[in-house]
Amino acid sequence: MTDRERDVDVVVIGMGPGGEHAAGTLAKAGLTVAGVENSLVGGECPYWGCVPSKMMIRAADLIAEGRRIPGMAGRSEVHPDWAPVARRIRDEATDNWDDTVAAERFTSVGGILVRGQGRITAPGEVTVTPVPGSQSAGNGAGPPQVLRARRGIVIAAGSKPAVPPIPGLASTPFWTNHQAIETGEVPRSLVVLGGGAIGAELAQVFARFGSRVTVAEGAGRLLPLEEPEAGDLIAEVFTRDGVTVRTGRPAARVEYSGGAGFTVTLDGGEELTGQALLVATGRRADLAAVGTAAVGIDEHLKAVPVDGHMRAAPGVWALGDITGKGAFTHISMYQAGIVIDDILGRDRTGAEYHAVPRVTFTDPEVGAVGLTEAQARDQGMAVRVGVTGVPQSARGWIHKAGNDGFIKLVEDTGRGVLAGATSVGPWGGEVLSALAVAVHARVPVQRLCEMIYAYPTFHRAIDAALDELAGDGRAPGCGPCDQARVTQPS
Ligand SMILES: Cc1cc2nc3c(=O)[nH]c(=O)nc-3n(C[C@H](O)[C@H](O)[C@H](O)COP(=O)(O)OP(=O)(O)OC[C@H]3O[C@@H](n4cnc5c(N)ncnc54)[C@H](O)[C@@H]3O)c2cc1C
To answer: What is the chain's mean pLDDT, rounded?
Structure first.
């Protein structure tokens, strides 16, 4: 064995949230673990995803709340300033995009960090090639290193922005989430291609900091993966806030002319202009780059197929975005827990995805869990639906400015449990937690009707949605409607 070869128990390819969790925990358990990373240990979430974007959203929400003071609490003048946001992202969230702390978190428990591009070259073998210009060049310059895994390989390589093949786009200096998060300045105007969670969140942030923002979504509505009511409400709120929303017409062409910025021409001919263009049209996994074919996994697939224990092939596990089970940090961490238990030979229930929670952190927040109404019907379920508006709830009415939202429950009437639920509103993602428990644990709707919901919380609107679910023939045991509603204007 040369110094460019190394035998270990486990090789983890990709040290994003799930990969780092698996690698660190297995190392702590006493295994020899090599974690291979071609960029920053921690992955997308802390440097270009969840954490910095939520810092931006926190700042944008403060601006919105400040603007809601007139008519409710006096006078306010808000002068947005991006500098503290950019500073916070650089200094607090990302250490100026330096992963020293995260790398030490792994090496301090005995992990071996190998910087570079990892590729499976044979069963049980990963070859790591230094990536020019990255941190890997520092400690890995030179010939490739070959890692041999006695117990297995964990593929945790995440996903990258999917850039659609729109004529003209590739040759322009468009932004992905990386440039949007790293920017030191707010563009005067911004076109956002893609009205999913990432596009919607970032569109609202930049609009609240003074950019003239247009969101263009090719599907029929914003947040196309969620309940239609959610996308419609977000479009209404955006429009009210001065964000231009275009849906149902894909982009046909992109042009860039330096100082004049970008022109996006939609199907039908409408032209959208912006100083910057953010492409937020989804994420894609790259199986070929990881060399999955070497272990018999077709590298043209969109995701690595896994069983309930995250096994992808003999001696190969996969987790996170690359499994296609939901591009969320909590899915990656959940799956990492299953991988850890499986590698350590611990008994554990296999993965369940009937209650995947997700939150779009717009204002109002859009929280959802399980199936949408359409998905439930497509699966052949007999479905009953209850919807109630947050402004009509006691807390929503008290809250007043910024109280847009609703709760929607989707009952699988055959089983008498919730198949899915959506909670849109102030702290909609927090209200979601009760609904996530109900969907996850398959709590009978009857029991939800018998529950006591604190007054006057936002989550108490769940009780009203249950009333609506029951309709005229209310489920036996559903209490009287929210008492507070009698005190409100109708
Ligand atoms: C703007 C934005 C906001 C988001 N907000 C949220 C949120 O609020 N909540 C939430 O749950 N999720 C959010 N996400 C999604 C979340 O960031 C991802 O789901 C999560 O990071 C996926 O984790 P992962 O473990 O699959 O790997 P990733 O985080 O994708 O990390 C994989 C790592 O592997 C490295 N790598 C890839 N291939 C190789 C290779 N061959 N060799 C070596 N290294 C390799 C990559 O460079 C990367 O560092 C957001 C994403 C974005 C872009």
So the answer is: 94
